[in-house]
TrEMBL record:
<dbReference type="GO" id="GO:0000987">
    <property type="term" value="F:cis-regulatory region sequence-specific DNA binding"/>
</dbReference>
<dbReference type="InterPro" id="IPR050910">
    <property type="entry name" value="JMJD6_ArgDemeth/LysHydrox"/>
</dbReference>
<dbReference type="GO" id="GO:0005634">
    <property type="term" value="C:nucleus"/>
</dbReference>
<dbReference type="InterPro" id="IPR041667">
    <property type="entry name" value="Cupin_8"/>
</dbReference>
<feature type="domain" description="JmjC">
    <location>
        <begin position="79"/>
        <end position="213"/>
    </location>
</feature>
<dbReference type="InterPro" id="IPR003347">
    <property type="entry name" value="JmjC_dom"/>
</dbReference>
<protein>
    <submittedName>
        <fullName>Jumonji domain containing 8</fullName>
    </submittedName>
</protein>
<dbReference type="Pfam" id="PF13621">
    <property type="entry name" value="Cupin_8"/>
</dbReference>
Amino acid sequence: GSAGCASARPTPTPTAKVRGWGGSAFRALCTRDKLLAAYGQRRVRLSTANTYSYRKVDVPFQEYVEQLLKPQDPTALGSDTLYFFGDNNFTEWGPLFQQYVPPPFRIPGTSGAYSFGIGGSGSGVPFHWHGPGYSEVIFGRKRWFLYPPDKTPHFHPNETTLAWLQRTYPTLPPAERPLECTLRPGEILYFPDRWWHATLNLDTSVFISTFLG
């Protein structure tokens, strides 16, 4: 089946599929209790939720989950919003990543690098682009907005995705609206090289991305 991200544009285009690739064993390790038991005292690196992710802050994982993992303030700037996505210590998080079953999709000549994250309701990353990869939701729901490389979206780099959705999105003519879809647990989205994309967690969400490089 499809998670609803479709396009009439020439390939490559974002593709969303329903399939629990990550596996039930990996999902079981990603519950709040299991993650806190395994990583609560480990320090994690948070990034500001703006386009260029300038600032990094290291905090104990338990502090992030218990104090910072809360619904997004619509008035907060991206530079004032801290978010745990990527920047994983691969030695510390290796035992978890070893349990992940990635989708059997490959681009010849590339290898995958995992990026694991947890975000509160209303959090996310504003429009940015990078190389190709795919992202799977383990818990929660994540809404994606995508534009092809030649169609730069209208956004302010220090505006959160939630603020963009509330202020800019409703004013866009139909021809200027992004491709969009919502991923639920076990659903995965492939994002092609250099496609603009922004994300919005509709619930507290746990997710893992695989960057192909």
